[in-house]
Amino acid sequence: MTTVPLSRLPGRPCPIAASLELVGERWALLVVREIAMGSTRFSDIVRGTGAPRDRIAARLKALEAAGVVRCETSPGGRRHTYGLTESGADLIPALNALLAWGDRHAVAADDPKRPARYRKLIKPDADA
Questions:
Q1: Domain presence at residue 35
Q2: In this structure, are residues 88 and 32 in contact, taking their beta carbons and an 8 Å threshold?
Q3: Which pairs with CB-CB distance under 8 Å and at least 24 residues apart come from 65-73?
Q4: Which positions fall inside the HTH hxlR-type domain (predicted)?
Q5: Which residues constitute the domain of residue 41?
Q6: Quick check: is 100 in a domain?
Q7: Who wins on pLDDT, 65 or 125?
Q8: 1-15 tens-digit pLDDT
Q9: pLDDT digits over 49-73, tens only?
Q10: What Å distances lie between residue 51 and 31, 54, 113, 123, CA to CA?
Q11: Which of 5, 37, 91, 104 is 20 to 30 Å from 65 by CA-CA measure?
Q12: Which residues in 44-84 belong to E strands, given as ranges?
């Protein structure tokens, strides 16, 4: 797991700033969301985020280096599947908080693409 020395951070260094150094880029949290929702293949993660393939590839590498995502290669080495590490699963309550905040403050009540209800993310079992 990567950590961020507080001495490296500008301004008022704190755990929030350190967290944002690791997962604060938009596509990073959407990658975590997609994996938490069950997308384990690269193409499914790209489709779910709507991001360009090269951005998702870069985010997956950065998240893997930070210890948030794990990558497993299939026998033969042609396919990769992605999952959340314990660190990644620990982000799920933060994503659920962003979901609730966004539902209340960031998406208009009359937005035609707004579903009546959003599904909260569930943290996987420790042995899953």
A1: yes
A2: yes
A3: 65/2, 66/1, 66/2, 66/22, 66/23, 67/1, 67/2, 68/22, 68/23, 68/28, 68/32, 69/31, 69/32, 69/35
A4: 14-110
A5: 13-106
A6: yes
A7: 65
A8: 789 999 999 999 999
A9: 999 999 999 999 999 999 999 999 8
A10: 10, 8, 19, 24
A11: 37
A12: 69-73, 80-84
pTM: 0.88
Q: Which residue has the tokens 């500008």?
A: 10
CA-nearest of 1, 126, 122, 7 to 63 is 1
125 in any annotated domain: no
pLDDT at 36: 96
Where do we find the tokens 């930070």? 66
Residue 26, domain CATH: 1.10.10.10
* Cβ contact 116:123 at 8 Å: no
Domain count, the chain: 1
